[in-house]
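During the second year of the project, the team shifted from modelling isolated chains to modelling whole assemblies. The rationale, set out in the original proposal, was that interfaces cannot be judged from single-chain predictions alone. As a representative example for this report, we include one of the complexes processed in the last quarter. Its constituent sequences, exactly as entered into the pipeline, are reproduced here:
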Amino acid sequence: MTEVGRPADMVRTFAQKALARASGQKALAVGEIVDARPDIALSHDNTAAIAEIWRQFGQKRVAIPERMAVTLDHAVPAPTVRHAQNHVEVRAFVAEQGIGHFFEVGRGICHQVLSEEAVVLPGDLILGSDSHTPHFGWLGAFGAGVGRSEMAVLWATGELWLRVPESIRIRLEGALGEWVTTKDVALTLIGDLGADGALYRSVEFEGPAIASLSLDSRAALVNMMAEMGAKNAYMPPDEDVFRYLAERLLTRPGRCPGRGAEPCETPGEVAVRLRRRALYPDAGAAYAAEHLLDLSSVKPQVARPHQVDDTVDVAELESVRVDQAFIGTCTNGRLEDLGAVHRVMAGRRTARGTRMVIVPASSEVWNEALARGWVADLAASGAVFGTPGCGPCMGNHLGVLAPGEVCISSANRNFQGRMGDRGATIYLASPAVVAASAVAGRIVHPREVVE
Amino acid sequence: MNGPVDVAQPFHGRVFRYGDHVNTDVIFPGRYTYTKSRPEEVAPHALEDLDPTFVERVRPGDVIVAGWNWGCGSSREQAAVCLRYSGVGAVIARSFGRIFYRNALNNGLLAILCPEAVDSLEEGAEVEVDLEASVIRCGEAAYGFSPFSPAVRSMIAAGGLIEQTKRRLAAG
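Output from the structure prediction step:
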């Protein structure tokens, strides 16, 4: 269906609009290749390795210091002297090049921190040397992952070629049931469509259920679309998103969009500016596939080793004993996730032989969990806490696994060897299922522990 | 260590077959990503968590034949670099993780979409890969693939994205 007065060829997806904006074009067709100029180029602990590549170009200064963002998050605090040396090199590069958006050890995971700091705004293009960069779609930005060489070229030239992807539309209706989260929604979609179900594509969510989802819940769902092969993922930003960003922009002078160094005005006025900047797909835009999911039909899920799309209802899983339960990551390390863990674990204890590791996604999450008393309660339940960051998700430190060990994790990948030894196994689930499994000592539905 | 093969010219090697959804964690484990980046550091770990004997067996010009979604997961570029510098000339698959696909071509490792070759080529088969002719030959059989764009071919001929960018910046 085409809107009245608008020819069909002017009807565009979010991806078409976002890449047109980033490449200074009026309209783009699917499949076109554009030289895009991202608003933000994100790198993390890999910044020193990228700088080594960039130095081969013989430049003294990067082309886009004001558009670069660097976090230390993947192995923090440094677990070895080599990692410490890497951090030294990252800090030296940041100082030498005058990178303003730099976030130190303990501030948190890049995707969470750049959201909290309102560095990325609706309608922006962000390219990151990190595969979970599609994360920023939760606030209506186009985020995509690139390699280190491409990031080095981006620093040197300010632009990179991108192909305008086909889009798939996923309509969300209904409401989540008790103990069901958007992690379960993501695992349901990935289980149904496959780990390559959105390969090379833009995943664009729509539907009445989105308004009922908390911002933390939206972020978890969009983040997980990387595990379906998506180039980027998107949720239409609403007033909740604008308010979240506006509050943060107001406390960060010189960052108000469209006002240069001028301070921001009232939250309402900032929200108006953000709304103007936001991009929405046109009604009638062409999608390569369309799916409908009724959230009330979703049940708590588990992804079995070693593939994210090998999913099963937790209630139907055979009995699996658990050595380690892990809460954290850019997928499920936010305040709402710690709240779900607290609801399940407070007043209970980890099972004998099962340990619980919690790594908050950011210092903001950590501070709020402390203020609410959750950290003390969970420590009394037997949980141990790591420095905000990526934790053991990718096998660097803070809870890696030995041969034969089993981990239930709130992270995004259960690949063989990911969290340590290749003889270990990883199951993925929502924070509530992870917490319940820590208490039971085997993977269980939360109601088995709480009710 | 073998070192890379010149993929701009036709090259010969043997087939190593693997399955679907082979991710970058098993191609190059995450535990090394912030301590090993240079080609000579990463090549000895190629496919370490998938096939620990691969590095001892691979020779320059060998190819990997795989199913769907080869290289899904992390953006780590070492996954492409370790294969290239262990001697692998091409990965032939039904589909690729998108970041791996870009990383591979940027580093001069051919990432070839060719389902017919995946259907037919067996472990250990001797093959020739001809980029110019866009064809994989095995005995009497030949499997064509879609030609790479002129931009990608010129990048590979230049020695990859970094070498190409050096020339571009030098030319102003």
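The longest helix of chain A spans residues 81-97. The two ends of chain A are 48 Å apart (CA to CA).
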